[in-house]
Amino acid sequence: MSIIKKINAALKSRDISCAELVGKYLDAIEQNQDLNAYITVTAEQAKAAADATDKRIAAGEDISLLDGVPMSIKDNITTKGIQTTCASRILEGHVPIYDAFVWRRLKEKGAVLLGKTNLDEFGMGSGTENSCFGPTLNPHNKAHVPGGSSGGAAAAVAAGLCAYGLGTDTGGSIRQPASFCGIVGIKPTYGAVSRFGAIAYASSFDQIGVLAPSAEDAAVVFDTISAYDEADSTCVEPGLRGGRAVKIDAEIKGRRIALIKECFNGLPEDISSAVMSAAKDYEKLGAEIIEVSVPGMTYALPVYYILACAEASSNLGRYDGIRYGHRTDSYLNINDMIMKTRTEGFGDEVKRRIMLGTYVLSSGYYDAYYKKAQNLRAEITDEFKKIFEAADVVLAPTAPSTAMKIGSRDDDPVKAYLGDILTVPVNVCGLPAINLPCGADARGLPIGMQLIGDKFCESLLFNMAHVFETACPQYSKRLHMGVEL
Amino acid sequence: MAAHIGVSASRSHKSMEKYELVAGFETHVELATDTKIFCGCTTKFGGEPNTHTCPVCTGMPGALPRINRKAVEYTIMAGLATNGKINNLSKMDRKNYFYPDLPKAYQVSQFERPLSIGGYIELDSGKRIRINHIHLEEDAGKLVHKGGKTYIDYNRGGVPLMEIVSEPDIRSIEEGIEYLEKLQMIMRYIGVSDCRMQEGSMRCDVNISVRPAGSEKLGIRSEIKNMNSFTHIAKAMEYEYTRKVDAAENGEILPQETRRYNETTGETEGMRTKEDAHDYRYFLEPDLVPMRISDEEIEDIRKRLPQLPAERIRIYIDEYGLSDVDAKNIAKYKNVAEFFEGAAKLVKNPKTVSNMIITQIFSTLGTEEEKEACDLKISSEQLAGLIKLLDDGQINSSTAKKALAKMLETGSDASEVIPKEQMGGLSDEELGALVSEAVAQCQPAVNDYLAGKEKAIKAVVGYVMKQSRGKADAAKAEQMIIAMVKK
Q1: Contacting residues of A for B53, CB less than 8 Å apart
Q2: ipTM for this prediction
């Protein structure tokens, strides 16, 4: 059941005031501080927004679904007047002077911001361990990571510390933590949601999306944030999106679901069988399962790491200590200042990716790496395009593992990169994909699967996910930590 | 016209003749759009530091660029006006380097697919200086050094800039300056830039090398960066040419180098050699989508281009009978040319119009900028009205001159400023009769004149003017008097 609808009904029937509701959420956040889901809690702003909602209700206004609903924003999305850090020392104390497009849209609808959630520095990581504010813990098991980079948002949603959260997904950063925390996470089509105000990691991959308890919740928020924004040139005009609107509770009989052979290679047994059993559930619901092969899939990971790092090396050049953020205390000259500032301000993983990216763009290496990766990107995109001639959606596991123990991958970055193997193809091709829970491992840690759609087919994904959730409610494990309605 | 540059006397002429100068220009031209290339900030020159800025042009985290279509259109216009070919698919790239005036640590520019490819500018000699390409990019901010500290002003950051890259076709300083003057004239003409060098809206880098005369191989070049006056460019080229010739004569090999011109010493100084050149790590700007420019759009822009100076000069000479010098003087400024053409087509002799513009109107338009603007109180039609009175013999040339001065001051019509008694000038017969009378009456003065006192003729002319109460054309009267007494 949609938490947004529940809150909306409770507010409208005046079972609870928005101020009380927000108070409960703020209490829950405080009681669960050990999760370290939030970097900044915006209690004062939240209370003021709640009062505004209460006034609208008192005035008899017909409030929108998102009005008064407490939510969170990943700390790499700009919020005017509220510190936005990207979990990096280099931006510690940085207070943006403008709102991201998505936050402006939600604010107009009366959304109540509870705070800014933790992440891997600049979105680089898959465990929310690479944060200068310390790791976020998985609410299902605090010894484990919540996934990343939107781990703060995923943990907050799973623990009931907000109704929904905005995250960003560059190589799986919404879907993988959603999978590790047993919630829904939508990574929209590249160009569906304005990136204006999303602090860039890799511009041609980054996309803002939603982490929520259910597909219906994610759909409501997505509808609001996916408006056209001319300030982002890569945001696609509504007339060119071409996707069809599908109702959230539409029949799925006859829908063709493709399983990609390559996705199951070397997959742990429990994950593989959870996804296969979900496929059977879909079959029972009337969908047809077909098997396809995407040979290019194996190249998606290197393609992603070459291109994303290349873009990152350029995107992160602006953090030089001159205009905002951290600046080193003592320096000899301007170059020394820039070098020291960056050395002190960036964490190891960010430095690693900047160096990788700088290398692949260097003259003499450009053709061998960057250019080759660009060509492969086009080929993989074509391979995926062909699938959607035969199938409506692709069903795949979201991650090759469940949430790992905190600190278990510290000394092996490549192993950590390999964990992204199932999520990055979606970003490489700019496709939409949604994670939804489909089981748990022996330790009770959630297993997630993703439905991948053709460009701008988000509504079909929401529908497919919603029908599954409704038919198989046993997978959506509610945690009883935060706010209960 | 090109400043004349003498080769310094200390060098032997002989060694100079042995070496050919080879040069090409990279010319940066700021586009005259109202707003910046990627945001809505004004492009106005000056302003309190950092007041013409926003999150986009200061590279705030999360801000994204949006291309100014006008800047694209202006670059296309520049391409077409210099005979270039417009790419139907053009892309923006990032040029990465760290410098405090570059807030994103990359400049959005064009590397692989610039807007315009090829083209040329034709010199007076008929020689064509080929253009390699024209690309669009953003300007950087400005460092201000004050009291031992350095401040940054980002007002200029993000102003659209066009880089016009020539081939190394230039063989002399004079050719180089002529190329730049022609380029400046064309850009002003089509209205894409005011090209004010002192304000930095036109800046040049020159690539220069020398080679033994007759050789086809290019020598090792040096690039002199960022010069903003024709005089400096000429001096820098001369210095660099001499330096290279001297080195060649001494068997010395100079490195490929980036240099700057020192205005105080008149010399060029090394900045960096090829070894420590930047690796700009160009790659596709992912925040902007490739620009598709259809043939229809290109044709549409071509149709809207004004007639260019070269074509106008040809018409002025061939069809209007203007002298080469006058034609160039008029055509140099688009607004003057249009003013001229407006009047020229209404009168019998367009030369009268050009004479009035060059001798009288130009003296009220003192600076280049004023000529550029050609902001006059009178219209072409009003000037033509005055000339018609002159052509009809209604007024004489000195009356016309005074009248024009008054018209330029007040914006009135000729009929309003000419005193009634000076109107209705003399017919040729009337003037002829007065001249005969004057020669008869002023016999002593005529004798003096014939004896060699040239000035004495003025007395005879004075008689004519007096008798006609100033209506006679003094110049014409003088001619007739001389003709008569010399018979």
Answers
A1: none
A2: 0.96
